[in-house]
Amino acid sequence: MAATDPMLDSGADFRTRLQAWLPKIVLAPSFAVMVIFVYGFIAFTLYLSFTDSRMLPSYDLVGWQNYERLFRVRQWDTAIINLGIFAGLYIVISTIIGLLLAIFLDQKIRGEGLLRPIFLYPMALSFIVTGTAWKWILDPAIGLETTMHRWGFENFQFDWIKDSDMAIYTIVIAAVWQSSGFVMAMFLAGLRGIDNEILKAAQMDGASNFQMYRRIILPQLRPAFLSAFVILSHLAIKSYDLVVAMTDGGPGTSTWLPALFMYEYTFTRNQMGIGASSAVIMLMTIAAIMVPYLYAELKEQK
Amino acid sequence: MTMMKKLHLGVAALAITATGAVAQEVEVLHWWTSGGEAAALNVLREDLAGGGIGWTDMPVAGGGGSDAMTVLRARVTAGDPPTAVQMLGFAIQDWAAEGALADLNALAEEQNWNEVVPEALQRFSTYEGNWVAAPVNVHSTNWVWANTALMEELGIEQPGTWEEFVAAMQAAQDAGYTALAHGGQAWQDATVFDSMVMGVGGPEFYQAAFVDLDPEALGSDMMVEAFDRMSTLRGFVDDNFSGRDWNLASAMVINGEALFQIMGDWAKGEFVNAGMTAGEEFQCFRVPGTEGTVTFNSDQFAMFNVEDEGDQASQVAMASAVMSPEFQIAFNVVKGSAPARTDIDPSSFDACGQAAMADLAAAGESGGLFGSMAHGHANPPSIQNAMYDVITAHFNGEFDSATAAEEMVTAVELAQ
């Protein structure tokens, strides 16, 4: 007995120590992978953006030259302006439609169980599928326009996707179609989380439905707005597949977005340095929007 | 542990099959995926199969091959290059400069490639005097393809000048046909632009603007006029051209919906595949204004540095098969291009093929043989793409011609 006691002790000691270490051991590989493949590659890209890399990475530093060139390239202007149009409209319209859908679904209507997945399902498709489907729908030769002509509306015209001034808006249409249902789901969850007692009290005080939404419900949805904004804006800035599937950047170069620009310059144009600098600018854009917003929101909640 | 063991066994088994059963094999990366092109490639595949060499196909779709080049970069960076890669012009030079290409000198000397391949082509197949690629063909890009039945119906003779060309297209448009079948992709716009520049300014201007990249030529009045001609052509293209693939545009001419298409001679493969005969059911002639000159691109198989000796042997066998006169004839008859060797008997080619070979020989002698800008044979990819941007933006109405010429100067400067 006496001989086994210390052994038992050390066994228990080992177990507690293991228990304390286990989470760290389990997390270590994924942490290492994260550090290398996210932050390591961010650092690598940052370094490349200061080199004269063309077809393959090169390690000769050239200072700010790539950034200077980047801002003189006309396609970059196009891409930035397009991102402004696309991100602005996409975020605002998706949020409004999602919120309205959620409010209407929240009216205790019959068939909610059926409607909810119908609105939510577009999110299950990838942007490639969405893009391809909308390319066909909007193509004047095979889609909507031809169909309307066949039904007898001879004057119906909708050829935005082939018009270099309007094509970027067709991308907004497809993106909004895809994301609104998802935003709806987030708002619906937020609505369901609101305390019914408060609403009943407000009702007793004689608040109208509109006042209730404006004064009580919407302010309480702040976290849902935050999530929607964070998710939609990063989707917008990294948007690549939707454009490739729908227009491939065309007509001409009129629907280029920064992500497409980065890919083109890095991988097909042998100007890796400029491509890397555009990636850095994109990252900084995201950071510039997200960091203050998250900081403000998270600080307030404490 | 057992997992690892199984894995090791699996790898060992794989290695045995790889070295034992299929010692002779080539892995070929290419973008020949449309009907006529795939048929042409089959000729090479069967040729090699006859010599007991296996073929691993690695097709990456996309007309200009830019997607294929992206795949290639990933493979080479990962240290696992394919045996042979279909490649164009300056891309070969870029990869050779990276030291990624194998040396074919021994074979070239044995088969006397220096004598039989035109010098303008050797400029791309060799790097610092060493052969690094085997040229398969010479495509010329300044062709017009026309539907004979439609020409007769409209009473159109083969146009000899730019004015007659425009008049012919006007007649087709007035009769309710699409005058010019065109796909609105940057490389297709640029292919047409090649001919416009050559037609307006001739060889000297072409050389100054596209090869020497002289800013004065790029911003000159001639360049403005070339862009003006593009605007004229834009007026003859149907509204739904944007993003259309080139072979679909060829199909419009084949079906008699459209009168002309300006496209390289790979379009001929589509016509032939549709059962039409050159010179009878369809016509080919040089873009009016560019007669006597040929803007070319040449498909080549660049051979990458591979470690394995068996792979190296099959690489040499493939290069040798590509350069053999029998293959050059069989392949180019199907593909629509002219052979890369000058010592080939033209009798087995159709009317357009014979015309191409005659034009090529004549242009080579008169100094009218130029690498096509649109296909990466006049300047490096970064500059080529910068030009694409301007050309395609102008064609889609973002610039007027004068602005486009100015943009050309800036774009080229930034890409250098």
Write the layout of secondary structure elements.
The complex is a heterodimer of chains A (302) and B (416).
Chain A: H1 4-48, H2 65-70, H3 74-105, H4 112-120, H5 127-138, H6 144-150, H7 167-192, H8 196-204, H9 209-220, H10 222-237, H11 241-246, H12 258-268, H13 272-301
Chain B: H1 2-20, E1 25-30, H2 35-50, E2 54-59, H3 66-77, E3 84-88, H4 89-97, H5 105-111, H6 113-116, H7 119-125, E4 126-127, E5 130-131, E6 133-135, E7 137-140, E8 143-147, H8 148-154, H9 162-174, E9 178-180, H10 186-211, H11 215-218, H12 221-234, H13 246-254, E10 258-262, H14 267-273, E11 282-286, E12 294-297, E13 299-303, H15 309-323, H16 325-335, E14 338-339, H17 351-366, E15 369-371, H18 381-395, H19 401-415
Helix pairs in contact in B: 2-16, 10-12, 10-18, 12-19, 18-19
Mind telling me the C-alpha Rg of chain B?
22 Å
Output the number of helix runs of chain A.
13
Q: How would you name the oligomeric state of the polypeptide chains in this document?
A: heterodimer
Helix content of chain A: over 70%
Largest sheet of chain A: none
Mean pLDDT of chain B: 87
- Ends of chain B: how far apart? 55 Å
Q: Trace the largest sheet of chain B across and list its strands.
A: 2-1-3-13-6
Q: Which percent range fits the helix content of chain B?
A: 40-55%
Q: Largest interface, by Cβ-Cβ below 8 angstroms: which chains and how many residues each?
A: A-B, 28 and 33 residues
N- and C-termini, Cα separation of chain A: 54 Å
